[in-house]
Amino acid sequence: MTHTATTAGLDPATLTDLLRVAGSPGFDRLTEQLRRTGGCSQPIHLTGATKTIDRATGTLLHHYSTDTEPGGRLRIACGNRRATRCPACAWTYAGDTYHLIRAGLTGDPDKGTPTTIRDHPRVFATLTAPSFGPVHNRPGNRTCRCGIRHPEDAPELGTPLDPETYDYAGAVLWNNHASDLWRYFTIYLRREIAKRAGLTQKAAREQSKVSFGKVAEYQKRGAVHFHAVIRFDGPEGPDTPPPAWATLDLLDDAIRAAAARVEVAVPAVPEAGV
Questions:
Q1: Could you tell me the pTM of the whole model?
Q2: What pLDDT score was predicted for residue 1?
Q3: Is 3.30.300 the CATH classification of the domain at 110-132+167-266?
């Protein structure tokens, strides 16, 4: 006779645990928690309690404790952006990012961006890290430099062709200072815009606003790069039109010039060989 667990593709111990959980008093609440995580593969388990107290009267307005939750824990989604860590949360993040970028390009009144921004000069820019050394890749599905045509899921994709000469220190420093690189880019961009418009930075700010929407993601080689919507708006934001001098060509040229200028000085660490 075939065991029920075997038929279901489970071992008997796992099936026993599933039946125990399904028959427990808190099963409905547990399924609600799991549903709210969106299928997160590694939800965060919270324990503790909160109290909301009226500061003026000292009256307890609300009290919550995880003691009443199944297993004494509240489960929430991990929110990890990497599909290798949590496919469900990464998918949710990708969807949110798509709608954010779309709203910045075409407008979305539900997200506070009028459709009139379609007439504003805007650029979808990708800011990528420099080379730290050649890596295994799939150039247009062609043969890699190593002489092999790698499949999409090849584990060596993104790894150095020559680990002995690859600039690991540079790659680590790039990722560590990526936020500073972006911050300096936005500073230099405003300067380059004012320069090309023949205005002071103050005058340029009074006449226009540069709006950004960006996301950061890892390439196969592990380096962070940015995708950004960069848009000219009027001085009051997306609801106002940009001035006549704020053209697409000016914005494109300023972006390229600002990206070329950005650098972050990092103190040398002789002990580490950098």
A1: 0.71
A2: 44
A3: yes
